[in-house]
């Protein structure tokens, strides 16, 4: 890694820590700079404002999600036709049971809270979700012809489940099983 990427990674990690500990109302550029042991002007060299910093944090979140999903895909797919179903179960488990990382889910909720008052951040998050959904469709389309339908239902469900899942009558593993049954029962050519 370069010195610049080490510094930006440290800044993102400090931002994530502050969002987790203090929520969106406690996040300031000055606090992030303090956590990193750099001056405010040095932080602003990398991220000119809070919105740019939060956009970089959201981008980091999506890259982390993609890396974890790709690792599961690489491990599950082995050329056997049944391996697509193994990958589907791992993907569902990753999105619903593991929630990718509860730490990042808490932080991402804070980002959405800030996006309500920050139009540029809100637009960036919607752009990230469009990119994430398109990426996921491309990744599973060769395995499941109804990829558009799966992704259109699964991403919003997983995001909402991260908020309310603990309150639902079925446990997470039962929800994964239900989703698996629903997806594998979809016709190859949806409406």
From TrEMBL:
<dbReference type="GO" id="GO:0003700">
    <property type="term" value="F:DNA-binding transcription factor activity"/>
</dbReference>
<protein>
    <submittedName>
        <fullName>Transcriptional regulator, TetR family</fullName>
    </submittedName>
</protein>
<keyword id="KW-0804">Transcription</keyword>
<dbReference type="InterPro" id="IPR009057">
    <property type="entry name" value="Homeodomain-like_sf"/>
</dbReference>
<feature type="DNA-binding region" description="H-T-H motif">
    <location>
        <begin position="28"/>
        <end position="47"/>
    </location>
</feature>
<dbReference type="Pfam" id="PF00440">
    <property type="entry name" value="TetR_N"/>
</dbReference>
<dbReference type="InterPro" id="IPR001647">
    <property type="entry name" value="HTH_TetR"/>
</dbReference>
<keyword id="KW-0805">Transcription regulation</keyword>
<dbReference type="InterPro" id="IPR050109">
    <property type="entry name" value="HTH-type_TetR-like_transc_reg"/>
</dbReference>
<feature type="domain" description="HTH tetR-type">
    <location>
        <begin position="5"/>
        <end position="65"/>
    </location>
</feature>
<keyword id="KW-0238">DNA-binding</keyword>
<dbReference type="GO" id="GO:0000976">
    <property type="term" value="F:transcription cis-regulatory region binding"/>
</dbReference>
């Amino acid at each position: 890694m370069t010195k610049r990427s080490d510094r930006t990674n440290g800044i993102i990690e400090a931002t994530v820590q502050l969002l987790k500990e203090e929520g969106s109302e406690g996040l300031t550029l000055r606090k992030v700079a303090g956590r990193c042991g750099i001056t405010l002007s040095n932080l602003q060299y990398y991220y000119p404002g809070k919105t740019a910093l939060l956009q970089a944090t959201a981008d980091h979140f999506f890259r982390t999600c993609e890396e974890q999903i790709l690792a599961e895909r690489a491990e599950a797919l082995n050329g056997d036709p049944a391996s697509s179903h193994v990958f589907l179960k791992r993907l569902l488990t990753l999105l619903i049971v593991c929630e990718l990382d509860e730490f990042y889910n808490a932080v991402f909720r804070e980002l959405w809270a800030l996006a309500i008052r920050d139009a540029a951040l809100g637009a960036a998050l919607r752009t990230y979700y469009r990119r994430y959904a398109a990426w996921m469709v491309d990744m599973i389309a060769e395995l499941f012809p109804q990829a558009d339908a799966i992704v259109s239902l699964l991403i919003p469900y997983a995001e909402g489940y991260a908020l309310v899942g603990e309150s639902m009558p079925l446990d997470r593993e039962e929800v994964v099983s239900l989703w698996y049954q629903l997806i594998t029962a979809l016709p190859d050519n949806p409406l």
